[in-house]
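Question (not urgent): is this output format expected?
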Amino acid sequence: MRTLYLCRHAKSSWADPGQDDFDRPLNERGERDAPIMAQRTKQYGAPVDLIVTSHANRALSTARAFASELGLSGDAFKQDVRLYHASPQTIAKVVSELPDSARRVMLFGHNPGFSEAVDYFCGDGVGDMPTCGIVRIDMVANEWKETGRDLGTLVWFDYPKRSEDNG
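Got this back:
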C-alpha cells in the first residue's frame, strides 16, 4: 500500500500588490496554521517518509513547517518545480515518479490543482480545499507507478477551521 498526503499551502500574504505570485510569503495566519496542521497530522499517527513541495515561497514555507514538526530533513525533503500551479494530471505524473523506497509521501502545492487531484485519485472530491487543508489518500499499489485515476481511497480530510466549522 502507498499513502499520499496532499496539502495546500497555508494562507499567503497579499500585502505587496506588486509582488510576484511565486514570491508571496505566508501571512500571520499561515505562519500560525502550518505548524498546527503539522501537529494534527502527527496526532493522526500519520508517518511520512518524504515531503515533495512546489518551490513557490508559500508552499516551501508550509512544507518546511511540516518537515520540522514531523522530524524530516535532508534526503526526505525535495522540491519539484512541476508542482507550482500543477494540474491534476501533472500531480499524478509527479506521484507516478516518486521513489518506491518512500511508501508515505506528502506533497505541497496549490489550488485549483490540489483540490482537483483529490477527485482525480479518489473519484470523490473535497470541494475547494482551504489553505493548509490536507487529505490522506491510501492506494493499493506496490509501486508509485501503479497509482492513478480512481485508484485511491480518501481516508481523511482536515483543515485549520475544521474544529470551528464542527462547532
